[in-house]
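Q: Focus on the shape:
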Amino acid sequence: MKALEKTLAILAFVVLVSQTVRHAYLLWLEPRISVLDKYDQPLKNEIASARSLDELVRRYDPVRKQVDAAKEQAKSEEKPVSEYSNLEPYKSERTLREAIKEWEDRSKQIREIWFYCSVAFVLFILGTLLYRKWNRWLGLTLLISSFCEFIYWTSPTFLGPNTHEFDRLLVQKLVFSIVVLALLLVAIRLNGIFLEERKPSPA
């Protein structure tokens, strides 16, 4: 059993350290500026400076009205809308709509992280108590389930639009990864996973 515990602890440690470093890199070092930004920088700046979803929606409303008016005009002129889909205001409307969807998706992910990491923490407490007080195999099973949940929900996020909500998601994942790493070290210490059994010295 000791060999299994050591293997699992090493794997969990390697994964957690790797993803913690990646979260820090994405948050503070990942280049987010492209040479192409100068061509559509005003809209990107509006999206990046938005402090809330409502602010993005307020920016989207007038552009959406322009698109609706343009569609009506194209319909009255019996021209297919597809001819204009890559022109303004269609292009800005599409960019803002994608930013809103991305913001909503990041907000959903943050709620999921808090819920599932709370469940994982309960499993961690129960697993630790069972491991030390009652049945080591059952306790280890709960601990494995706990760290699988932790690792999955703090796993790296692909780089998205440069928004405050994306940064907030990265901060949440970074903090949780550090906390989970600390919990892993606590579990290793409490359960003596890397303690070597001392052989009695010969008389």
User: Anything to note?
Assistant: The helical segments are 2-28, 37-49, 53-76, 90-133, 136-153, 164-190. The chain has a mean pLDDT of 84. The chain has one domain: 2-190. The CA atoms of residues 48 and 162 lie 5 Å apart.
